[in-house]
Each structure stands twice: as C-alpha cells, then as structure tokens.
Design goal:
By secondary structure, the protein is mainly β. The chain has 2 domains: 328 residues, Beta-galactosidase, Chain A, domain 5; 47 residues, no CATH class. 3% of the residues lie in helices and 49% in strands. The strands form 9 sheets. It has an 8-stranded antiparallel sheet, with no helix packed on it. Strands 10-16-26-25-22-18-19 form a 7-stranded antiparallel sheet, with no helix packed on it.
Length: 393
C-alpha cells in the first residue's frame, strides 16, 4: 500500500473459542477478588457472573476492527472489551506482541472469564467488568490524514465513562493511544487506568526501565539488580511477580526478547501516565501451568503495563462532572538490541563493554526510527570528541 494510505474497516474473524456457559444474572453485591494474583473485594453488580467455563472449543465468528498503514496492522475486538488482539509489523512480516490465536477462558477477571494476549484496557479497576464483554467501537477519519479506532463504554458499577482512541498516522511506524476518562455523575468516584500489553516470554526476555527501584506489592527492590540477582531478566524470576517502576528517569519503558530479536516500546509523559509495570508468571510449575490454561500453542507470556498512577495500590478520585485525558505511543523494535533510550522519534540500543573500560571491545549501536528521516545524521560522542558518525540522504 502507498506510504500515505491508511486503511480502517470493520469485518469478522473466525477464532477457535472455548465454550462459556450461561451467565449468572444474580451476582453478589460484594465478593472476594478472583484470580491468582490479586486480593481484596470487588463490586460487579449489576454485571452477571461469567464463571461457567468448559474445556471444549469451536470456531466462532467475532467482530473485528482493523487499522493499517504502510508499517503496521492491528485489530481490535469490540466484543472483548476493545482488546487490541494483535499488532503486526509489516516491515518484518511478523507479530510484534503476544498474539493468542485461541480464546481460552480462565477465572481471572472480576466477573470470572478472562483471556490473555494483545492489549487489555482496564478502568476503573483491573481485569475489569467489560474485559470479556461487548463495548462500542467505531472508525474515525481525522483531518490530518490519520485514522482512529474509537472504543469505550459506560461502566455500570460507577456509571463513569471511558474511551480509547487508537490512531495510525500515514508516515509513522507507531500507534498512538488517547485515553479519556469521565465521571458523568454528581458524586466523586475512585478510579485508576492501566493498559495491559502481553509479550512473548523466553530465557532472553529483558524488562527495560530507567527506574532504580521497583515496588512488588510486598517490598521495594533495587532495579535492575537486587541482592545480586538481575531481576530485569524474566528467567531470574521463580515465582509470579509484579514490578512497578517507582522512579523512572526517562519517559519510555519496554521489553526486548533477545531470542526473537524483537521488542516493544511505550512512550508517554510520565507526569500524566505515572505508572509502568512488568508482570511475570515466573519459571516455577505454579507459573507454567497458566500457559496451559490460557492458550493451546502460543506458550508463556509476560506483561508490560502503562498506568495513570504509580502502582495498582494507588487510587485517586475523579471529581463529579469532570474528565481526564492523555496520550501514549507504542511501537515495535527489531534487531537493535534492548533500547537504552527511546522517544516518539526513535529507539537507541547500545551493547558491549562501556567506552573507555580496560580491555573494552567493540560497541554495537542499534537505532530504529519511527518515520522516514531525510538528511539524518547519527553520531557517537565521548565528551566533545566524536567517535563515529554517519549521514543519510
């Protein structure tokens, strides 16, 4: 397709789907939060429970909204809470994030049924009431030549409204998300928002943050090394673990799978989206069992999340008749190594011994830009001295 062309359309897709039983229309007013990780109580009324799950599947047809430019193609499932089901990198002809090709339910969501993969949107709480239910979705053509998928809902417990606009631009190899949260009632309501993206896991999966401390719901740990253990490598986690980055110095966060030579970067104004989180199921049998429960063939996954507040233990109040909004950028990186810096324009990776170290070897610099840059120059400097430079026409 032409570099300036944006495609946006609605279609249907056949997905192998495990069977769910009838929903229970009489949920409790208050019940213990379900799932292997989270604790506490949840309110779900008037939403019905989705607890009856069966170990048999069939090919079912689902609605899907597609968005595509010359670099990326993505799909959103409005009948699954607007989940971004996949992100396809056209430059490498491969999946950019963890794409679960089967819908296999497990009792993890607030109402029960939940599936893994893609990007899940959570407001005003986690694995929220609409994660496995239909919401509204539409296509919008924008005046600047971009196109957006708009999806959202009125959450009936709090009666607050949320929406996400996923936008592709003609000349950009990233997608942008704009979140809008509105308290349409005359009463204050507590809330938070987290975008939960899934990543493929192997021994070479690395978590990338400029934070020096992470909060694990139980303790504060040094990052990336704590008590001699490199906790930024997924393979060094035995048990399931949440890691909330407490003090990032830069606005980007990401993951990079060295075995697959690909990763994903999220960039946001961290005064607006203050939360960045990694989650791993860990390498023990207790964690490995969830791959079998949530997929047939895709294998294990981990999560990278971007949130409104620093941790999931922090809630704030949305004032009556008020609205909040902010934007974030997401893009895949390929064959450059783990980024040490990223913004909306480019990601930079530097690997090898540090310059000037005794016995230092060659440094490898990897760069990936998000748009064509005519007349660009790349240079490596040590103080005022230029070590290397190159230009492109």
């Amino acid at each position: 397709m032409a570099p300036t062309e944006i495609k946006a359309w609605e279609d249907t897709i056949v997905i192998p789907t495990y069977e769910r039983g009838a929903e229970d229309p009489n949920p409790p007013l208050l019940m213990k939060r379900r799932g292997p990780i989270h604790a506490g109580s949840s309110v779900m009324y008037p939403y019905p429970l989705q607890e009856t799950l069966f170990n048999r599947k069939a090919d079912l047809r689902w609605r899907i909204f597609y968005l595509e430019n010359a670099y990326l193609k993505l799909g959103v499932l409005p009948e699954l809470g607007g989940r971004l089901a996949f992100l396809f990198n056209k430059s490498t002809n491969e999946e950019a994030i963890y794409h679960n090709h089967v819908l296999k339910w497990a009792r993890i969501g607030i109402r029960g049924a939940w599936v893994s993969g893609g990007i899940e949107w959570n407001f005003p709480n986690g694995h929220t009431v609409t994660s496995s239910s239909p919401i509204d979705c539409a296509v919008r053509r924008n005046a600047d030549g971009s196109a957006s998928l708009l999806f959202g809902d009125i959450e009936r417990v709090s009666r607050m409204r949320w929406s996400v606009a996923v936008t592709l631009y003609p000349d950009r190899a990233f997608f942008e998300t704009e979140m809008r949260l509105a308290n349409r009632t005359v009463l204050p309501n507590r809330y938070w928002f987290w975008a939960n993206s899934a990543a493929p896991v192997s021994k070479g999966t690395e978590y990338i943050s400029t934070a020096s401390k992470v909060f694990t719901l139980k303790d504060v740990m040094s990052f990336p090394v704590h008590d001699g253990v490199d906790i930024h490598w997924d393979c060094n986690h035995v048990e399931a673990q949440d890691m909330f980055c407490l003090n990032p110095r830069e606005e980007f966060v990401g993951w990079y799978n060295h075995d697959l030579q690909k990763g994903l970067v999220n960039v946001a104004d961290r005064t607006e989206a203050r939360g960045t989180k990694f989650f791993t199921w860990g390498g023990s049998d207790d964690g490995a069992i969830w791959a079998e429960r949530l997929t047939d063939a895709e294998g294990p996954y981990c999560e990278m999340q971007s949130g409104r507040f620093p941790t999931m233990g922090i809630w704030e109040i949305l004032s009556p008749c008020s609205e909040e909004s902010w934007k974030e950028v997401w893009y895949p990186v390929v064959k450059i190594g783990a980024p040490v810096f990223a913004n909306r324009e480019a990601a930079f990776a530097l690997s090898g011994p540090r310059p000037g170290a005794k016995g230092a070897g060659a440094q490898r610099l990897g760069v990936q830009v998000t748009r064509p840059l005519a007349g660009a120059r790349l240079a490596v400097q040590l103080g005022d001295r230029t070590l290397w430079g190159a230009s492109w026409t």
